[in-house]
Design a protein that fits this description.
By secondary structure, the chain is mainly alpha-helical. The protein has two domains: about 40 residues, Arc Repressor Mutant, subunit A, CATH 1.10.10; about 140 residues, Orthogonal Bundle (Tetracycline Repressor, domain 2), CATH 1.10.357. The chain contains ten helices and no strands. Helix 5 runs antiparallel to helix 7, helix 5 runs parallel beside helix 8 and helix 8 packs antiparallel against helix 10.
Length: about 200
């Protein structure tokens, strides 16, 4: 096989996650899939936590590369969409990024771009970080739910009984579920992120 380096470890980890999911990922299983002794991996990543951080950083490559032509609020909305697309590009992408605290170029560049867009939209400097991270938290939560549903559908574990909720006892939930079934995911995401951004950008 080709010489093992950090890039090959990350690529192999992605292949493993795509095939088996994040929950199955261990250093030993990854080493086995790469055909090396598990101790070899520690030359390239310190532990599983560092490996997941590296995957998160890899996932955010290029997400912040957006020009300043759009106004601040629109730019923040575009960044949110780019983040969602990146998370959806890999199995368990949102779960991989959620909960990490990566201080590497791609991750920092996204935070910088989001805060800059919030400030450009009229959010006071002292609130811009809160605004940017509020948008990021929405994207992560939305996409975790989205990917979880896809996996449940693929496994056949997603409920197919549309009448499972007693509309007599829970009329609002029953109606809400009908709405969610009718409204495409893209439209749901767009609605949520625009509502959040408009509530945060004081000039709109």
């Amino acid at each position: 096989m080709a010489r093992l380096d950090r890039a090959a470890v990350i690529a192999g980890a992605w292949d493993f996650v795509e095939a088996s999911g994040l929950d199955a990922l261990t250093m030993r299983k990854l080493a086995s899939s790469l055909g090396v002794h598990h101790g070899t991996l520690y030359w390239h990543v310190e532990n599983k936590r560092a490996l997941i951080d590296a995957l998160a950083e890899d996932l955010l490559a290029g997400v912040a590369d957006i020009g300043p032509k759009e106004q601040g609020a629109d730019r923040l909305i575009s960044l949110a969409g780019r983040l969602r697309s990146a998370l959806l590009s890999r199995r368990d992408g949102a779960r991989i990024v959620a909960g990490t605290f990566v201080r590497q170029p791609n991750t920092l560049a996204f935070g910088e771009a989001a805060i800059d867009a919030a400030r450009d939209a009229g959010v006071p400097a002292e609130d811009a970080a809160l605004a940017a991270f509020t948008v990021q938290y929405f994207v992560l939560g939305f996409t975790i739910e989205e990917q979880s549903q896809h996996q449940l559908l693929d496994s056949g574990d997603w409920p197919t009984d549309t009448n499972a909720v007693d509309a007599g006892r829970f009329p609002l939930i029953s109606a809400a579920l009908d709405t969610l079934r009718r409204v495409p995911r893209e439209a749901q995401f767009d609605y949520g992120v625009r509502r959040i951004v408009r509530s945060l950008t004081f000039t709109e």
